Amino acid sequence: MSPKASMQVLSVASEAYPLVKTGGLADVVGALPHALAPEGVAVRTLVPGYPGVLALLGDATAVHAYDDLMGGPARVLAGTHAGIDVLAIEAPHLYRRTGTPYADAQGRDWADNGLRFAALARAAADVGRGAVAGYRPDLVHAHDWQAGLVPAYLRYGAGPRPVTVMTVHNLAFQGQFPASLLPRIGLPAESFSVDGVEYYGAIGFLKAGLAMADHITTVSPTYAAEIRSSESGMGLDGLLRQRASAVTGILNGIDIDVWDPARDDRIAARFDVRRVKARAVNKAALQAKLGLDVDPDALIFGVVTRLTWQKGMDLLIEVLPRLVQCGAQLALLGSGEDAIAQGFAAAARRHAGRIAGLIGYNEDLAHGIQAGADALLVPSRFEPCGLTQLCALRYGAVPVVARTGGLADTVVDANEMALAAKAGTGVMFSPVTADALTTAIERTVALWADKPTWRGLQRRGMATDVSWTRPAARYAALYRTLVEHHAQ
Asked: Using CA atoms, how far apart are residues 182 and 94, in angstroms rounded to an integer?
């Protein structure tokens, strides 16, 4: 196969932007088709037919039907949206409901999630084997636990199968369901083994994908190494060490058309690396929008994240008094654990005009924080890749990050040697403790006071290539190697 020969890839995930999004998984899955097209890779994306997805696809065409898919009739619909070639599973008994893709309006996981995402994997395997007339992908790329059973259905099915790649976006979410579900999801009894889907007496969706995919990728090189350790492997490190030769870390990118400060219509004033001072308009707009004191001299730390222990948000609450004492402000956007959300709300009441934000998610405000905050805080205890720090680099918000996973791969710490070499792009700290985070905040405040040094950090960050160009080339090369090996 020549370097740019056309390859057909079926990408399988529970969400894809702009069809449906709850987090960074959707951004990655939605960006890959566009990123891979210049590499000669044609991607179709298979997602569940949630009501919002079906509404966006409009007059999609039925290309395959099931009399019974995990308890009811279903169809696979083909359509396009925002330049993405989409296959959606129309299965009202599984997906026609309010709430998120994973939980009801009260945040409780759907009781039938095992069936709902087994259906996604089963349909993917069927499409992979040619169920859609005129389409047979060379490779099926499964994302996270919701698509983890794809390699299992292909292994235990009949006939030739495509190559499979399993990407781990976050090992913390593994998808475990009772063993009693096995006959209902249509996998044979022999699949319930240590080499199959069995995981500590249950069915492990992600474990199945990691055990049976032809290749495994993670979303950063450092995370690929971390998850093979007992400290970060979350019970799967033994399997991942056993399969080490089949594990590759490929750093994520971001959509630089969506995230482009020079063309972003969601922000108050557009700017680029040659007009960094224009960010001041966005800073004032952000302060006014959130009710922060409108003070150009106050360093604004931005946060755009899930409010969880993983993201280190409990530690941030602990150090907020010191952040305020340093003369800084905090602009926060996020949702997650109630106790953490309440902690930030209480801090905002105590420090009115200095700490403010929105509990929830708002795409406009996410762009506004990246464009108006001076620095972006990402104190994650573990971070497979992280996308907010990539957006921050692009928008001139200096990232302040923990030394872990993809954060360590994407930010160059502005230590003395890096600054002397004009190489720093942000502030990095470890271990992930309140004391270390406090020190990082103090370092950032000191850098902010040195305006020439700060402008250098911003300009180097904005000049960093955070696009999908290099990751897409790596994915395409991996795909071709795997498909060529499979054909031998």
From this structure: 17
